[in-house]
Design a protein that fits this description.
With about 260 residues, this protein is mostly helical. It has 11 helices and 3 strands, in the order ααααααααβββααα.
Length: about 260
Amino acid sequence: MALTQSNLTDRPGSRLQIAQAFFGPSVQEDRVDALQKYFAYYNEELQLLRQGISEESWQTKYLAAETYEDVFHVVHVLRRSADSRRPELRQQLSLRFCSSNDVGLDRSINLAIRLWLMINVQEPEFRGLRHEATSIQWDDESALRAFLASLFPLSRWPVTAQSSRLGPHFTAVFMQSVCGLKIEWTTSLHDHLRLDRRRKALKIFPYKSYLQALINSQYNSNSKEECVLPLKVLQETELSLDLLFPFWDSGTVALLTKEK
């Protein structure tokens, strides 16, 4: 059966075709295995489309995108028109999904953002599907690129070169054992390093291979329009993971082994 004819909820799609659709045609087969953790998230998102007490409460109700090819098309439109507002994107998508209403188009846009950019853009009624990730709503007023940039505001406080340096032992294990922080994994990039002071819990986005694939897709692109997420956000997130989970630290190795 061809991938383009496969319903999203029927079976997993070709991992290579998914990776190339999201991260660019330069992705090779030997790089796909490194994205195993990401594809586990991808499949979970598809399974959540049918979670609820009845079909009437499923996300698949009204969903315009029904096949893998449909999702790839939505991502293509979002990438190409990132400076457009949601009503303009709906208008573009309606050329393909002519029988879908605004709810179905918005739901498909949200799904594409979750699968492609790993940001939990979700309708309020479905915000409980991923308890580990903050649910975000996108309105009709802001363009996609501006909306995404607003999720990662710049610090209002000047940081000097000296104060920005962290000691080599300031790791996730250190924060657990010395600071008493609880490490909680999140599937939403927007939640990375979000600290809940009341619960003393720090959320960490652990998808480093995914970040590397997204960064590489921006470097390999010939168009600035490809940069939907700020490149600096992706790079700093990857760097923070390197600092929090150094490969040379035995305690880090033990922590990651325990969490597998």
